[in-house]
Amino acid sequence: MKQLLSLLVLLLCLSTSVAVAQEKVTVSGYVKDKATGEGLIGSSVSVQELPGTGVTTNEYGYYALTLPKGTYTLTFNYLGYITISRQVHLQSSTKLDTELEQNVTKLKEVEVVSRREDTNVKSMEMSTLKMQVAEIKNMPALLGEVDLVKAIQLLPGVQNAGEGTSGFYVRGGGVDQNLILLDEAPVYNASHLMGFFSVFNADAIKDVQLYKGGIPAQHGGRLSSLLDIRMKEGNNKNLEISGGIGTISSRLTVEAPIIKDKSSFIVSGRRTYADIFFGLSSDENVKDNKLYFYDLNTKLNYTLNEKNRLYVSGYFGRDVAATNDFKMNWGNATATVRWNHLFSDRLFSNTTFIFSDFDYALGSKEKESEFTWKSHIKDYGLKNDYTLFLNPRNQLRFGLHLTYHNFMPAEVKPGKFSYVNALKLNSTSALEGALYLSNEHQITDRLTLDYGLRLSSFTNMGPGKVYLYDENFDTPVDTVTYSRFEKIKSYGGLEPRFAAKYELNDASSIKASYNRTLQYLHLVSNSTSAMPFDVWIPSSTYVKPQKADQVAAGYFRNFQDNMFEGSVEVYYKWMDNQIDYKDYAEIFLNERLETELLRGSGEAYGAEFYLRKQKGLLTGWISYTLSKTERTVPGINNNKSYPLRYDRRHSGNLVLSYQFSPSINLGTNWTYATGGAITMPVGRYEYNGKTYPVYSERNGYRLPDYHRLDLSATYEKPRNEFKKYTSSWTLSIYNAYARKNAFSIYFRENEDDSSKTEAVKTYLFGIVPSLTYNFNF
Fold first, then answer.
1. What is the pLDDT, as a whole number, of residue 2?
2. Domain-located, residue 694
3. Are 221 and 86 in the same domain?
4. Which among 36, 60, 459, 666 is least surrounded, fewest beta carbons within 10 Å?
């Protein structure tokens, strides 16, 4: 901590002295969309008279450039918008807000995306990919539900968790090793309908960015990736209403100014309606069944004055499933309050208060077996982040993060006449904190470095109890009880971050990065994707934090005036304190779960190839990933290394969108991956009249290869310049050639010969067509 504070003070002193000595002044402001007033993230602001001098806007569209006194021409550039230049006479610090207008052509030759044309080459970011919502909406969708997580699964280095699921794996990491943030609030389970859809309504989303490596110092807590999702702020110019009616759900979004150009709101809702059709059934056993999910996104922003802005946003979503005998529901709730403050033209701050709650409940309605089972994880957080624009060659970020976690793994309450016993697993809490400091430093016109340090800490606290075990670590011999907020166990560590970019020329660059990450929360699950009934547990007396170090390098090249962008990246990641389960582990409602867990090391490495066409009538990308992921855990697989279930040697994706005419857009996705690893029975034996299976090595076999083709066609009613109402129809075909991809494998006795065991593959989808009507006015 002392080192962080000392470096900060030094940099502040240097910036002050430089500013005084050279009589520099600052031009700053916001870059916004002219039609909606939304801040444009990552917009380029460059100085024509000083080649190589420029800056990009931050997460709120803010920029600052410190220059010697004089007259300059500033160029504002954002892909999909008309580039404009403005002359500014700088004799004192000046505020210059700018609005950019979308560049719309009759054939939509330019799509609106949240990035610069040459971001692939010029930006510091590597192992980082942005998805534009407009592009996601043109992709074929399962049952008409546009899903940004399924779109992310089509990017290089990302694997899906299984047929139809919304879980994802990044560069050899598990689903719990992905940090998912929605307006800076963590989302612990991003799935609807047991994983078939994600919780993110594309109509409410503004910006999506996935970090696979080179994770900025301000973020931590997960080993593999950061999925940073930002909600729309709401149109502060005009009332806008949009929505759609689909095969399984309908949605509606309303956004409008409260005070024009000063304050606005957005409310976006979505709900499925399968339960409505249950009510129409003549079967009494089906009539009262329930199966639906809903989402509600809300956001309000208010400009207090030139130096202060306030944002309040929330997400509320839930799944409900019930029959006459059984009921279950689960969902997320997040709330974020953010205050942007300008201490000066060059010092930008963001203070964020965060709440996140993931909970689930299930139970039986039968009188003799009636019970209710509840579980949750709740977060209360504070983030205080600063961006200091030292000068055009140095951009400093620093801040403090604090999060209070509350865990309730399971509580079972029986009914009045039930034979079920009451049970409450050991609840606990934890305090997680971090200090960070980083600097993006342009050494020369071609060489830029981004270096930083994150100091994280974690304290597991009561109320709770810790078992003391015998030498075999299976039988408790004593128990230590801790009161509320009493320290049980503490951990911490330094997490260095480093990235470098060297521009070979205007069209190509090479980049490299290194980052260390620590993860203090762990998901206890025996499924291949994050299910609603999985349990999150903290690092504790017996469960150490996970640690990962990753290095990556890549070559980045753009072609034909930035029409095409390509990259080749290689990476290597080594991981410690990786958790896996003993053979035949019992993790269901286990109060002494630590006795079923084993710890070891892991490694993941690979190469990713990516070619994208980002302009023209035909857009899209092709990607290929060659990778390997292994783990070595003493006590598993005879202490030999073994592949993880999501280890897939080869995977490739083709994503295309073609603007056939002003009214018709055609889209297609094709995806392929080698089969995931599984453990299979290879024999059996009898003992005392009972038959027991003999299994292969851990994950010693492979599922069949996975591949699927999706198609879509969108017809948009021709625009009338005198009418603001627009509408469209989208026809999607999921799994167009009816590939029977394995969802699961189970084993049973052969019906003709009971001495033989046979494997049976189950699959979920054949050809799945859907039709969606969308509107906007």
1. 54
2. yes
3. no
4. 666
Model-level pTM? 0.89
Identify whether the C-beta of residue 119 lies closer than 8 Å to the C-beta of residue 205.
no
Using a 10 angstrom Cβ sphere, with 0-12 exposed, 13-18 middle and 19 or more buried, the burial of residue 225 is: buried
Kindly state the tokens that stand for 444: 């020369």
pLDDT tens, 318-374?
Answer: 988 888 788 888 999 999 999 999 999 889 999 999 999 999 888 887 877 788 888
Pick the range with the lowest mean pLDDT from 70-74, 435-439, 706-710, 743-747.
Answer: 743-747
φ/ψ of residue 57, rounded to 5: -70, 155
Q: What is the pLDDT of residue 9?
A: 54
SS3 168: strand
At CB < 8 A and 24+ separation, what contacts does 291-295 make?
291/320, 291/321, 291/322, 292/319, 292/320, 293/192, 293/193, 293/197, 293/317, 293/318, 293/319, 293/320, 294/269, 294/270, 294/318, 295/199, 295/201, 295/268, 295/269, 295/270, 295/271
Is it the case that residue 232 has pLDDT exceeding 50? yes
| pLDDT(43) > 70 | yes
Residues 402-428 have a mean pLDDT of 86
Residues 66 and 202 in one domain: no
584-640 pLDDT tens trace: 777 777 888 888 889 999 999 999 999 999 888 999 999 999 999 999 999 888 899
| Six token digits for residue 355 | 């709440």
Contact (Cβ atoms closer than 8 angstroms) between residue 621 and residue 655:
yes
Q: In this structure, what CATH number is given to the domain that contains residue 275?
A: 2.40.170.20
Are residues 251 and 301 located together in one domain of the fold? Answer: yes
In a domain, 118, yes or no: no
d(CA 608, CA 685): 45
Q: What is the CATH number of the domain that holds 32?
A: 2.60.40.1120
Write the DSSP assignment of 685-734 as a string of letters. Answer: EEETTEEEEEE-STT-EEPPPEEEEEEEEEEEPPP-TT---EEEEEEEEE
H or E element, residue 348: strand 347-364
Give 610 or 139, the one with higher predicted confidence: 610
Q: How confident is residue 254, by pLDDT bands cut at 50, 70 and 90?
A: very high
Residue 297 near residue 267 (C-beta atoms within 8 A): yes
92 shares a domain with 176: no
Q: Which residue has the tokens 């940004």?
A: 148
Residues 357 and 281 in one domain: yes
Is the pLDDT confidence value at 114 over 60? no
User: What span, in angstroms and rounded, lies between the C-alpha atoms of 715 and 711?
Assistant: 14
Which of 53, 72, 104 lies at the terminal end of a domain, its last residue? Answer: 104
Give the residue-averaged pLDDT of 464-479: 88
Q: Is residue 293 domain-shared with residue 188, that is, in the same domain?
A: yes
Mark whether 76 and 23 lie in a shared domain.
yes
Spell out the alpha helix ranges (H) of 101-227. 119-122, 133-137, 148-152
Among 333, 311, 329, residue whose Cα is nearest residue 320: 329
CA 771 to CA 733: how far, in whole Å?
9
Phi/psi at 13 (5° precision): -65, -45
Residue type, 402: L
Give the count of domains, the chain. 2
The answer on 90 and 176 residing in a single domain is no
Which domain does 469 fall in, by range? 128-776
Looking at 104, 138, 156, which one is the last position of a domain?
Answer: 104
Beta-strand pair 98-100/24-33: parallel
d(CA 430, CA 446) in angstroms, rounded, equals 45
Nearest to 377 by CA among 521, 224, 588, 566: 521
Sign of CA dihedral 82, 104, 154, 620: negative
Residue 115 belongs to some domain of the structure = no
Q: Is 369 contained in some domain?
A: yes
